[in-house]
Specification:
Elements lengths: L3 E4 L3 H6 L15 E4 L4 E6 L6 E7 L14 E3 L10 H6 L1 E6 L1 E5 L10 E6 L5 E11 L4 E11 L2 H4 L4 E3 L1 E2 L4 H5 L19 E5 L31
Parallel strand pairs: 4-10, 5-10
Antiparallel strand pairs: 1-2, 1-7, 3-4, 3-6, 6-9, 7-8, 8-13, 9-10, 9-12, 10-11
Amino acid sequence: MCGRYLLRNQPEFTTHNPWREFWDDISQIIPRFNIAPSQKCPLIVASPNGPQLAWMTWGFRPTWAKSSFTKINARSESVADSKMFGASFKTQRCLVPADGFFEPEGEAHQKNRPWHLFEYSDQRAFMMAGIWTTFDDGKVNQDNFCILTTEANELVGAVHHRMPLILDESSWKDWLNTSESQTLAPLMQSKSYVGMQEYAVTDTAKNPSLDNKQCIEPAGTPKPGDNLSLF
């Protein structure tokens, strides 16, 4: 699964993104080092005027859902036929900008699992595949989304068996084009993540209330005062 990611607002992403012209409020995208579920996040969605920036809450919950429990991920292998996600997959797909993501090592029942950060060696930004919906019960009206996951590639697989579905730039427009749902299978089978690297991080990222550079520091990084001595 993908339960945390980051968007450090790399200059390469904001200045060379082909859809920057649609981002009237791009200045609102501040560096984020620990984006967590239930938080508002920047996405790219389709609109009559072309792709545009939107802000939605991470945690998928359609209006008809009886449970208040939200889904942060959807399996790409079954999303098209899912009762929960199928309608959004066909008509409300989105792109989730990021330049890194975290995965916990080991099985869910294990305690104190180390977390690993996965990113490209040049820290370039990328797009994760997402879908979105709207929750509206008459009291609350909220657009929300989840991130699609796929079977982990060799690098991520050494830590976790799933990873977010990262789309090549050449497929971004196809992903947002809802008239092309029948031709998306090849996009969701790609595992060509050349140039990606990983390292274990400190436990800081496990706290969703913390969002600073300490979240991406390598494990074992001394904290201020750790090396102080009276002699």
